[in-house]
Amino acid sequence: MTKANNIGWNFDNSYARLPSSFYSQLQLNRVHAPKLAILNEAVAKSLGLDYSALQQEDGIEVLAGNEIPKGALPLAQAYAGHQFGHFNMLGDGRALLLGEQITPLGERYDIGLKGSGRTPYSRGGDGRAALGPMLREYIISEAMFALGIPTSRSLAVVTTGETVLRETELPGAILTRVASSHLRVGTFQYAAQWGSDEELQKLADYAIQRHFPMIEQTQNRYLSLLQEVMKRQAALIAKWQLVGFIHGVMNTDNMTISGETIDYGPCAFMDRYNPATVFSSIDRQGRYAYGNQPPIGGWNITRFAETLLPLIHDDPEDAVALAQQVIEQYPQLYYTNWLAGMRAKLGLFNEEQQDATLVDELLTLMEKHEADYTNTFRSLTFQTCEGTALFDSKEFKKWYEQWQARRQRQELSKAQSQQLMRDTNPAVIPRNHRVEEALEAAVTRGDYRVMDKLLQALSQPYAHLAEQEAYATLPAPSNCPYQTFCGT
Known about the structure:
The chain has helices at about 40-45, 50-55, 55-65, 130-145, 185-195, 195-210, 220-245, 295-310, 315-325, 330-345, 355-370, 375-380, 395-410, 415-425, 430-445, 450-460, and strands at about 10, 25, 35-40, 75, 80-85, 85-90, 95-100, 110-115, 130, 155-165, 170-180, 245, 270. By secondary structure, it is α+β, with helices and mostly antiparallel strands. The strands form 4 sheets. Strands 1, 3, 7, 8, 9, 10 and 11 form a 7-stranded antiparallel beta sheet that branches. It has a two-stranded antiparallel sheet with strand order 2-4. The chain has a two-stranded antiparallel sheet with strand order 5-6. Helix 4 (about 130-145) packs parallel to helix 16 (about 450-460), helix 12 (about 375-380) packs antiparallel against helix 14 (about 415-425) and helix 15 runs antiparallel to helix 16. Nucleotidyltransferase involved in the post-translational modification of proteins. It can catalyze the addition of adenosine monophosphate (AMP) or uridine monophosphate (UMP) to a protein, resulting in modifications known as AMPylation and UMPylation.
């Protein structure tokens, strides 16, 4: 046990009170020379941790997986998942759950280490992670948080002093991830496939108690669980679409019950608007392309519904009918969230029947003229619509007149409309070339100043500050399409 009780760790591990089939207890895989690469002061303080103490040796030893804080119980979670449509047994192959930090406000957050070494679920892998992908997750997850999108967050990244072998030797690192929980659709798939009905029920009751206590007394709490998870996923994916975020690997093991974005592997933000945009090197068929994310969300919810059928009703046919009534609501639920967000991006407070057509026409023009997604809405916000193929086109000018007429058909003022747009359309996103620039400096030169400046710019995406202007510029034209990699 670590001596560092002064750090503020206040651990419980309610997940470990589930049946032992849901996890494997772990021995620590120590690293010999850990060093702190980056520490998130805001996250540390929100967890009730002493930021200064975390930077000392005792703090770093915990973040490196070398020491166990009092009350922690390291374990690897078991889960399954549909990976690109194919069902597999999975589990934490390179991560461990230390436990759950209880904050001074009484909130409960999982504290997990990613890249912490082999587990019983490693499937031949080394269980380690390279520095670049861990810093990438830190950057993107913090950007998502600032954008107002539910997400896991990153407390720290430490380098291990060891190398990992991928295509080449790379510096090793461990990320400390903070999440409302790591319960996944795949966790329920695992229970349904390999557990008993009693174990499945215990998992469902645990999920309800942890995330949806308001449904415990409903007539059919497992049907209500399906409804609540579906609502959160529909809202989450709508938020992704509204900022041009592409998760890249929407396997069921990467979809949380809590409705948080998790597992930032080959994710990226779209520059030029195109629904077919794919960045992930492993998504060769475009299953998880930007435009496919909403229906894949529904597909994943259907897989979740299948796991709950024995709990929803004793009669299989009745169970299917009840679940079907719920999941049929998903497309409209998603669309309602998305269209409300699009109205806000266009400064519209009220609703009119033709709003969907107005939005669709703009997106069609953006795709035709290869317009940048984020900067188009930013230009609309500040009425700087000139100098691009889109803005100079006759079609856009006609659309612009229709939009202005639509804005006038609401009681609130034009200034209020613009403020709504300012609050909804970010000035900056983590542009792929900027992220790569930061990672290159940190990984190859040990220079974290580029990353620090990027994080600062991303921390207030709706502030529209002059110093953010440089981070809104597009990458130079390239014949090589940008690709992302899982980093596993």
